């Protein structure tokens, strides 16, 4: 087994196994990591520690002040009521099969989900506008169609694979007859006249929308909170966030009040809510699913980072949903090809290398990822290589630089304050902050903060950061190839309490970096923490190799149990 002994660290030996390329990559990156530690051990590392401690001290002082001004939530109920209808514990594929076979009617399924939403939504505030009456009418039409169908079940399955199955949609997407405000008070009266392409494809496959769900203001924050619809709660603990920006989807799915949903992701907006709410989600390869029909529009280079994808409670629904949402583009992914997990190369990266801007990875998440490694090695007979990738330390800087870069036409992206002003008065971030402290602002503190950050953002991208991005891109693409699978933490923390992310604003970089790199990622739940909160991991593969992470997610659902009903167990994975 190739190895390197690192001078100055008597107990540090670098090991790697596998192909020549993967061995060289593993050793070079591990060596770089330890050389970096050696060279900065006496100076920069101490300075970074000082910066980290200083930043945290300042943030906690700000948080103490924030608590004096922020409204406090009060909950009379501490947990969700248990699921009593067995229909709510079936996957979308199982429900579709039962509906086609007339074992259950679409009306019964849709009504079961309506009842559950009405039961839990007052506690989690996930669905912001429903279309229950229209959904029941559409379900009745489905049942009539099935009664009159003479071609048999196979014809229905091929033509309408989601026939009669209820679905929920993030409010940022256009759904005919539903609001499309993304939490902006200035867009409160806007109603969609047509469906976003991804939503239209799901409806054309027979899915029945129940309504739209909450998101963060303008879809650019990891807590779903705005002054139009309020704040969304985590179904496992109402005092904690559901994530963002697709947090309403994550919450309603995690609560067992929806089975499949539509989300979007430009920095982790599918994966973070899926992680915090214990469900599955997938950020596809770029260009597979249309991003049209959602607000706000992208500008600059951002279209190359935004992805639309599926969110669901059961892993078996990911591939059918992606196949439908991608339309003809889904053929590029060869989703129907069999995947032999034993023939794949697996890698595990436990953290980003120690950025002083980002929280350390929670010990329970590190342990959960180690358990995945052990299980993969025991069940599949593979060797999972642990890697340290130094460039990941600059994940936030890479994301911020690329998001602010001008487009191919040379025009800079639309500023956040401009988006906040759309349809309303011009927003001045400093004045808006003053108004917020007095309780008069129509915007959230997170949105105001993002607008303020832009005021101090350099218009000249750092050549060092661009170099780190290009280096990371090349090395990861070479490492993963067409048969590599990488495990990486979804977030450094388990679902935080409400408003806490304002004081750890860069933690999303664990997900955001893969938007910039354009790699497909599947978010997979790994049971619950000792506090009863979801654990999870990201599964990353090479471009257009989505089927590898999706197949791995199916395996991990069987190995670790997948989604856990909130309030039932608090066992570790």
Can you walk through the features of this model?
The structure is a single chain. With about 575 residues, this protein is an alpha+beta fold. Helices cover about 40% and strands about 15% of the residues. It has 18 helices and 17 strands. It has an eleven-stranded mixed beta sheet with strand order 3-5-4-10-12-11-16-17-15-13-14, sandwiched between helices. The protein has a two-stranded antiparallel ribbon with strand order 1-2. Strands 6-7 form a two-stranded antiparallel ribbon. α7 links the parallel β4 and β5 (about 210-215). The chain is globular. Residues about 1-45 have low confidence and may be disordered.
Give a concise summary:
This protein has 573 residues and is α+β, with helices and mostly antiparallel strands.
């Amino acid at each position: 087994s190739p190895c390197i002994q690192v001078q100055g660290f008597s107990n540090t030996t670098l090991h790697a196994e596998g192909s020549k390329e993967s061995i060289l990559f593993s050793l070079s990156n591990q060596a770089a990591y330890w050389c970096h530690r050696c060279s900065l051990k006496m100076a920069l590392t101490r300075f970074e520690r000082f910066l980290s401690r200083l930043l945290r001290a300042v943030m906690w002082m700000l948080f103490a002040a924030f608590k004096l001004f922020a409204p406090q939530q009060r909950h009379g109920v501490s947990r969700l009521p248990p699921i009593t209808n067995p229909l709510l514990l079936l996957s979308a594929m199982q429900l579709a099969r039962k509906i086609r076979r007339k074992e259950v009617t679409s009306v019964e399924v849709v009504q079961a989900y309506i009842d559950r939403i009405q039961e839990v939504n007052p506690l989690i505030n996930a669905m912001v506008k429903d279309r229950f009456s229209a959904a029941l009418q559409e379900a009745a039409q489905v049942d009539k169609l099935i009664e009159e169908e003479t071609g048999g079940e196979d014809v229905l399955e091929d033509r309408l694979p989601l026939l009669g199955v209820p679905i929920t949609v993030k409010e940022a997407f256009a759904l005919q007859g539903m609001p499309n405000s993304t939490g902006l008070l200035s867009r409160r009266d806007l109603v969609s006249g047509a469906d976003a392409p991804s939503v239209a494809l799901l409806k054309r496959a027979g899915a029945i929308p129940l309504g739209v769900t909450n998101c963060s203001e303008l879809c650019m924050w990891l807590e779903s909170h705005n002054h139009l619809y309020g704040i969304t709660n985590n179904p496992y603990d109402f005092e904690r966030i559901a994530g963002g920006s697709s947090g309403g989807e994550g919450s309603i799915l995690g609560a067992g009040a929806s089975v499949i949903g539509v989300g979007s992701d430009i920095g982790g907006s599918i994966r973070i809510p899926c992680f915090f709410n214990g469900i599955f989600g997938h950020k596809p390869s770029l260009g597979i699913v249309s991003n049209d029909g959602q607000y706000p529009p992208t500008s600059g280079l951002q279209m190359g980072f935004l992805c639309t994808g599926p969110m669901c409670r059961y892993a078996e629904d990911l591939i059918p949903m992606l196949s439908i949402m991608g339309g003809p583009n889904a053929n590029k992914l060869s989703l129907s090809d069999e995947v032999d997990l034993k023939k794949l190369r697996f890698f595990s990266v436990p953290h980003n290398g120690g950025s002083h801007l980002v929280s350390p990875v929670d010990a329970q998440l590190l342990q959960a990822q180690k358990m995945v490694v052990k299980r993969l090695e025991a069940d599949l007979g593979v060797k999972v290589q642990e890697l340290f990738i130094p460039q990941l330390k600059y994940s936030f800087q890479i994301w911020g630089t690329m998001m602010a870069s001008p487009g191919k036409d040379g025009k800079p992206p639309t500023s956040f304050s401009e988006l906040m002003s759309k349809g309303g008065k011009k927003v001045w971030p400093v004045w808006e902050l003053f108004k917020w402290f007095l309780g008069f602002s129509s915007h959230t503190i997170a949105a105001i903060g993002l607008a303020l950050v832009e005021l101090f953002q350099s218009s000249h991208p750092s050549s060092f950061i661009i170099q780190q991005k290009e280096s990371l891109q090349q090395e990861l693409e070479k490492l993963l190839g067409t048969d590599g699978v990488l495990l990486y933490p979804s977030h450094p923390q388990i679902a935080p309490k409400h408003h806490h992310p304002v004081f750890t604003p860069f933690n999303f970089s664990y997900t955001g970096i893969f938007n910039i790199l354009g790699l497909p990622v599947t978010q997979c739940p790994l049971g619950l923490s000792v506090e009863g909160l979801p654990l999870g991991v990201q599964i990353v593969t090479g471009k257009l190799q989505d089927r590898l992470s999706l197949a791995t997610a199916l395996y991990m659902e069987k190995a670790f149990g997948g989604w856990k009903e909130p309030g039932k167990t608090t066992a570790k994975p």
